[in-house]
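Please, structure for the following, as tokens.
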Amino acid sequence: MAQTELYWDHHIPLPKLGAVQAKVTVAVVALLCFINSYDGEFVFDDSEAIVNNKDLKPVTPLSNIWRNDFWGSNLSSNSSHKSYRPLTVLTFRLNYLIAGGLHPVGFHVLNIILHAVISVLMIDVFAILIGGLDYDEKSWTVNHAPKTSLLAAIFFAAHPVHTESVAGVVGRADLLCALFFQLSFLTYCKAFNKGKESNARFSVQWVVVSLALCGAAMLCKEQGITVLLSEILRTGLLKRLGLMSLGGLSMLYARWRIMGTGPPAFTEVDNPASFEENIFIRIVNYNYYYSLNAWLLLCPWWLCFDWSMGCVPLIKSATDWRVVWLLLLWCVLIGLVSQALCSPDSQRRRTLTFGLVLLVVPFLPACNIFFRVGFVVAERVLYLSSAGYCLLLAYSLGQCCYRWIKYKVLFRCALRSHQWRSEQSLFSSALSVCPLNAKVHYNVGKNLADRGNTTAAVKYYREAVRLHPNYVHAMNNLGNILKEQNELSEAEQLLSKAVAVQPDFAAAWMNLGIVQNSLRKFEAAEESYWNALRYRRKYPDCYYNLGRLYADQNRHVDALNAWRNATMLKPDHSLAWNNMVILLDNTGNLGQAELIGREALKLLPNDHTIMFSLANVLGKLQKYKESESFFLHALRIKPNAASCHGNLAVLYHRWGKLELAKKHYELSLKLDPEAPGTRDNYNMLLTKLELFCKKNV
């Protein structure tokens, strides 16, 4: 398996570094390229996989990690993505425990460190693939291509296409998969230890360890199984081939059994080519997707967080000019394969062969050949494949254009890493790359709305709906904003269309009910709320809004029942608790209102709104001391609440503590001069104080 030193290696304009120096250099490059993402936010898919994933929280049983998918859904559920990555989720959980919560810095730092470690290990992987496996007298591996392997590792460390995997926390799956992929490969190579005093020895134990590490790679991301194919292509003896094949088939069978109900279901907007009935058009578009992936590796300037929803229009005929790109791709691949098979230069054959294997094999699960995938292009799936590209690039370039590529790639990598620090910069950067992608406009709009700029958000939501007329989430969010802007008729139209397109969209049904309630279409609103509850039984916010509808219709018992259901499903639903207290207060059921208020404060001891409502009830029950205590506690939490000062003044007024009443009336009027009733009560108090003074005189 050993090779002599490569004749082209010394032409590469890099110093010949020692093993440790080379690895430190690569680690520094990797860290410099991505260090600016260490204090980034949780962005894009991080919301579902981390922020909203209950499997990360210590209160969730650890066993759930092994039963749920990457996003926290049960694998047996029809809505599950079937992405079984328990080891990745376990690292997220450890990050959560160490940091004491969802603090993104720890998550990002670990991703950056993992990328640096993987980049360093790439030197050893490239050295074996290029120069073969050889040992010195001390049984240390010998690197016959020190400069080429260093250059390829530097390219890998700094490639901008890795930004999604490194700067996006969910990219941890790709990083861990790549790490175990490398360890499995390097361990497999240890099975062929050529000692000084013996011939080549084959160790079954090391192969078994390699299989175990392959299994770990699969438990981080499904792509990990491809390391076996890479190893099988290097395997000669029937015994080794049988052992690796048996291990691989066993893991594939176990993975299929874990998936439970079958493969995941994707929609046409996720991967439109896979839904094309004409098989020729489908194949053409698949190949066009491959050419796009190749272009991202070759020229990583056009990078986008999402490539679905019209970002890449389908090729419908052979006359489409984009066909040129897939023809060019296959011409290049055929040329490389012919050189890998037919070149008289054995060193060239070896380098090209293993470079192509490392480029193509890890990409196979994402190629749509074996099963449909849920994306058009995804930069994260190129993390491992890019290693093969970097190997081919280092071989091809040598000193030609090296300096230009080095500085350009480093700059682009740092810029792209900076864009992943926040959703605002990430989503905005995609507008110039994929202006036809409705999801890009949707995410820009959502980010603007979350930051309070609803006026600008409307523009992007409208564009998302224009690009994709059946985009129900864009219609739902746009309808919500229009509802807040009191444009109720258009909001009703949008939300009605959303539920017509997707009848099980519970949130849209609830929002439609809110709009219809505002339009005083009470029967339609009630029907919409019940539709929402039919599709999502545990929906406390919907019960809350249903209670508001009943309250508007003076159906007090129904309102109380709806709000009670909301608090049963979500015990900390402050609005539902508060509305129950207020309704019981307004209907004269003061004793029951007091009980509900005290029950609520046991669950929400620092909720100033419930304290305020309960204090009002206690004041009416002439429990002045307790009422005063709750008012003062509420004011300690929110000292500038004008209504709280005003009602405390009324309490003191009734209680006969007139000076204190005067003080809090004045504070209330200072905070809110237009507070209803406060001015009249204050004037009445002043009259009373004046009469009191005259009597004393």
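The mean pLDDT is 86. Strands lie at 192-193, 201-202.
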